[in-house]
From TrEMBL:
SUPFAM superfamilies: Class I glutamine amidotransferase-like
Putative glutamine amidotransferase domain span: 2-53
Protein name: Putative glutamine amidotransferase domain-containing protein
InterPro entries assigned to the protein according to its UniProt record, in alphabetical order: Class_I_gatase-like (IPR029062), GATase1-like (IPR010768)
Length: 57
């Protein structure tokens, strides 16, 4: 799975065998994650769900 901003990947998730990984190609600082993104209603669920998926839950 790849989520992009324009042509650039923002979140990439993948599975190989029994392993899973997620890469977030930014940081959580305001210059990369504007207030509108951090305050977005789906922000916390996004991270909870990505963490749960990556850990196999």
């Amino acid at each position: 799975m790849v989520a992009k901003v324009g042509d650039d990947p923002l979140i990439v998730a993948g599975q190989y065998g029994e392993g899973r990984s997620v890469a977030f190609a930014s940081d959580c600082a305001p210059h990369w994650a504007p207030a509108a993104f951090v305050e977005w209603q789906g922000y916390a669920p996004l991270w909870r769900q990505l963490t749960a998926w990556a850990s196999g839950k």
